[in-house]
Amino acid sequence: MKNKPTLLILAAGIGSRYGGLKQLDKVGPGGEAIIDYSIYDAIRAGFGKVVFVIRKSIEADFREFIGNKLNGKIQVEYAFQELMKIPAGVTINPDRQKPWGTGHAVLMAGDIIHENFAVINADDFYGFEAYETIANYFAHLDENINDNCMVGYNLKNTLSDHGYVSRGQCTSDENGFLKDVVERTHIEKKVDGIYFEDDNKQSIKLDENTLVSMNFWGFTPRFFEQLETRFGKFIQAHKDELKSEFYIPSVVNEMIVEGLAKTRVLESGAGWFGVTYQEDRPVVVESIRNLIKEGKYPEKLW
User: Fold this and answer.
1) Type and span of the H or E element at 104
2) For residues 141 and 133, is the Cβ–Cβ distance under 8 A?
3) H or E, element range at 62
4) What are the structural domain ranges in the chain?
5) What is the structure's pLDDT at 142?
6) What is the domain class of 6-152+213-293 according to CATH?
């Protein structure tokens, strides 16, 4: 019998644009955070374990807020992302303060995940249908191969009204496989459309229906081998830099280009919303209350 998949939640972000630990912000009527709804949906979709990637400095608060309430509901594990969790012998810029990005965060869980797993952000609400879609795909995905999947969303449905966001811009082929994904780190709504800022600070317009990754990925355990090898090369090339990050989409893209893996783009009717800025919070609160009124979630989750 195939192992139940694991949900890997990236929750180590400092939340500087939001102004605090947005992963623990209470947005549900019973004091739930977005992360509670993610886990609730994953349990309903058949996931058997949840792994949180956090920083050691927030462990106590995190366990008190979310970990303890899950006792008896799903297996829980923790992994820790820290700046100095890098290959031995590598010396970095002493002024660097932030860890090394989402790819590095996933790598931190390599010793405790041995089954197919989904990766999500702690502060994004993806919707039950997205978890169901990826769980169904996992049921037929061999754990011993490199192939991956992702849940794709339309760009226009993933933006904030209050500032810029980062998204993985995706292109898929006629068979529904990802051709490439490029991390766009500064996407913003303007009066005449949606634009991103390139490396030369030039504004380039994007179609509102552009397929984007919301960091909802599905991988087999073999992905950790790729992460470890590629992060070793990345850290050697960028060890002196203050802000360069090792992104999941970059690794996926390299594997596609090198012919090492195929990545299925899964389409889902799930609605997405999230909190990048404090001003996004009222919209999230209202959206959750509407879903409760529709009977999608109970008034109190746990």
Assistant:
1) helix 102-107
2) no
3) helix 59-62
4) 6-152+213-293
5) 85
6) alpha beta
CB proximity list for 155: less than 8 A, separation 6 or greater = 167, 169, 187, 194, 206, 207, 208, 209, 210, 211, 212
Vertex 71 angle, CA 301 and 139, to 5°: 80
Q: What is d(CA 48, CA 9) in angstroms, rounded to the nearest whole number?
A: 14
Q: What is the pTM of this model?
A: 0.88
Q: From the centroid of its chain, how far is CA 195?
A: 22
- pLDDT < 50 regions, the chain: 14-19
Going by the DSSP 8-state scheme, the letter that residue 268 receives in this structure is -
pLDDT digits 0-9 by tens, 52-76: 999 888 888 888 888 789 999 999 9
* Contacts with 291 (C-beta within 8 Å, 6 or more apart), sequence order: 297
Cα distance between residue 25 and residue 65, in whole Å: 10
Residues in the chain: 302
**Assigned token pair, 25:** 């912000």
Q: Residue 275 in contact with residue 25, Cβ under 8 Å?
A: yes
14 burial level (CB within 10 Å; 0-12, 13-18, 19+): middle
Structural tokens at position 104: 């590095």
